[in-house]
């Protein structure tokens, strides 16, 4: 089992100014989600940060809620929590792939997101990974978000204007140097 392997963990991120994270959780498996929240909140508080929680129906809604919060609120980063346990259909693959892809795309646009959506074969695997005293994947997701916030602050913060920018003021028509004719 993967729980017996050792791996390197970065030292906890530290901050000069307070950090505020939004934990977006899909509590479909409530006991697993509660354990992941416990691990995430403990990690955020240990780093001197604050947090809020938003619940959504399932893992597919987690990225949408994060995108909405980024648009309408003022969080420094996000922790995505949930659990997808393999079932009898390909729905598992769709939920795992699409939720992960959406989170990754938002991360590539500059959002600081720790992905703690478990994708497991069975409930026992989920319980071990969610347990704050065992693999603590909720705490790990919070730590990832905190490290990304630290990098964002180090490198100048998130840039909101990603992609095409609207033209500013007036556009001069070709051959019109005095600005008397505008587009």
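-> sequence recovered:
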């Amino acid at each position: 089992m993967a729980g017996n392997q050792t791996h390197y963990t970065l030292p906890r991120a530290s901050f000069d100014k307070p950090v505020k994270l939004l934990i977006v959780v899909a509590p479909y498996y409530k006991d697993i989600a509660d354990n992941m929240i416990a691990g995430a909140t403990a990690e955020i508080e240990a780093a001197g940060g604050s947090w809020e929680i938003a619940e959504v129906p399932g893992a597919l809604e987690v990225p949408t809620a994060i995108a909405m919060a980024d648009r309408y609120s003022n969080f420094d980063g996000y922790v995505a929590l949930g659990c997808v346990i393999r079932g009898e259909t390909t729905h598992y693959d769709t939920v795992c792939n699409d939720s992960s892809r959406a989170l990754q795309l938002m991360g590539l646009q500059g959002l600081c997101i720790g992905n703690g959506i478990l994708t497991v074969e069975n409930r026992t695997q989920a319980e071990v990974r969610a347990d704050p005293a065992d693999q603590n994947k909720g705490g790990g997701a919070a730590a990832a978000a905190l490290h990304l916030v630290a990098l964002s602050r180090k490198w100048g913060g998130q840039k909101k204007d990603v992609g095409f920018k609207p033209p500013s003021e007036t556009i001069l028509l070709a051959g019109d140097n005095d600005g008397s004719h505008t587009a």
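The beta strands are 20-25, 50-55, 77-85, 113-120.
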